[in-house]
Amino acid sequence: MEKTGQLIVSVPRDWAQPAIADQLSTGEIVSVDEIVPDQLTGRRLTVQRLRTGGLIPPLQLLLRDGYLSQRDLLGSQTASANSEDQQTDPARVQPLTVAGWPGVMVSYAFGRLGSRHVQKQVLACSSLPNEQAVVIRLEGPGLPDAADEELVRQIAETTAVRKSRSPDSPALLPQQPGTMVKLDNEIWTAIPPHFVVMPTSDPNCLSRDLLANRSDGSWTAAELIPCVWLSDEPAETQILTLLTARDPSWRSATVTRIGDNLFRADQPTSSADSDFPIVAYCMTNGVNQALVAIVRGGWREQSEFDETWKSISSDVRFIAHRDIAALLDAGESQARQLRDLGLEKMLPKSPAQPQHWSLWDQSTNVDKQDWMQLDFIEAVSSDAPAMWRGRRFTIPTYHRLGDQAPAESIEQSWTGTNDLSTYRVSTDRIVSNQGAMSQQTAIQRWAVGDGKLQNEVGGDGPHPPPKQFVPGAWLPLIMGHCSDGPMILRTESFWSCDGSAPPGLLTLLISGSTSGEMRCLNVTVNGSGRTTRWWYTLDDELRYIDFTSGWRAQRSVAGPE
Q: Was domain 2-161 assigned CATH 3.10.50.40?
């Protein structure tokens, strides 16, 4: 039995010595080769635990991360006489429990069928709690057969993922389902039949995942997110903003009212992942609280979505009512104080060179990854008032991408006056493939001036900003001057949901405390289901940020060489 990090694997007997890797970019890997006579090619077995960025259908993960292509899955009905890489039969897909969780096994062959060039691959995968997955891959020459599938089945049954890296940590396994689940001490809701609550030990995760545990092989999951509800804002815009804070793909969704204080949101059927349906539901008490449920299905599976939501919404109890008026009043007072202080007094000294930020996993002993580059200066101007300028470039690194998958990054630039009364921000999404930029899309343009706020990309005309509004590009840099709250601030963008570009303003719930020589501000972007913890020195300079799943962003003392 091989153990590395949180992964436990029983490798086949009489195979070669396993190779073990434990790296942040690829996850924990155990790889072992079959011992065969000389001049023959044996099989290779690889078992990997990797980060996923969220709960995702196992088959979708295999497709997204490059383990499998749609051509592999569906087969190809066209054949070329000269092709050395073709497949005519669709893959064989079967339900399989992997590391104790509902998953899938996919068997297929590729290459020139009927020749010595044919290669087989048997994959198994399941999604686990805490944004992780297990992938098993058996590859070798020839066509996949029953013996290959039985080997993968045995490995899947004996593989386990521990709750932590501690040697005596127990395996992460489904627990007996209950009848109700509590969300952030504010909402109780029913658990549908045949669903289990996925455990989490992450203090920064406010949402809870439910996963169907059925024997028929279907895959359905629901993420339940507790939210604040602002009764004076349009319901459709507010729901889209809540959903976009969780995932930017909801930006173009359609919201439909399905009952009193009940709503449904559907993504466009032409979206890239339309083969894996996803629907969102929202229930609100109409005053100050809401429950969002994001329901996901496996390959073209959505027949049970409405029934799942009906079961969840049959018993929802809003048990703790936030004093929204008091939180808004505190936010109004805080926004006014920030404007009165001004950027010149709040910003740290303009760096001689751009700040470099990295992400690293606190639970592993591996090196950090580049995350963000940040620069800001006060522009020299003969005109009053002087304008401050900033630029930020962010590289998303929350989950592993396949070798052929395009990489996305966010570029943001902004200007503003010292008193925050004038502000303009531009946010672009940049998609590059193999290092070459292939597409740059403007996703956000906001402007503040003459007492008016305007969303210049698909928004309404200019209107007075909320009294709690603080420009989002400046906010993380000056937030150390905020009181411990609690309070609500409003803004157009925020680092922890970078590039979301919602149709409305984000709602930030902020509270803080001081511990030793550091101040910590807890910030929840409404709808995200996540809390981020922002650590400032006592002289109000941002040092590091804690995200979910153990990720920490930290400023480098000096830029890279």
A: no
